[in-house]
Specification:
The protein has 73 residues and is an all-alpha fold. It contains three helices and no strands. It is flat. The N and C termini lie far apart (36 Å).
């Protein structure tokens, strides 16, 4: 549904910004950018709360927890 899509997109986009902040020493974020990140995060959590306990949310969160792991042979 649209709420899950929003949460997933926010997760990806905000994770990319976090990686920039962690690994690119010269990058600087403005105060309005930082406030925007916080607002997007809060909206994602509100939407996540609205779908909490649904099958789609459980599958999504389970997949995030499992992540990509190498196949052992």
């Amino acid at each position: 549904g649209p709420d899950l899509v929003h949460v997933a997109n926010c997760f990806v986009e905000l994770q990319e910004e976090r990686h920039k902040a962690d690994y690119h020493a010269g990058i600087r974020f403005t105060r309005p950018q930082a406030i925007g990140f916080v607002e997007r995060t809060e909206e994602a959590f509100r939407r996540l709360d609205s779908i909490r306990g649904t099958l789609e949310a459980d599958v999504f969160l389970g997949a995030m927890l499992l992540g990509k792991r190498p196949v052992r042979r």
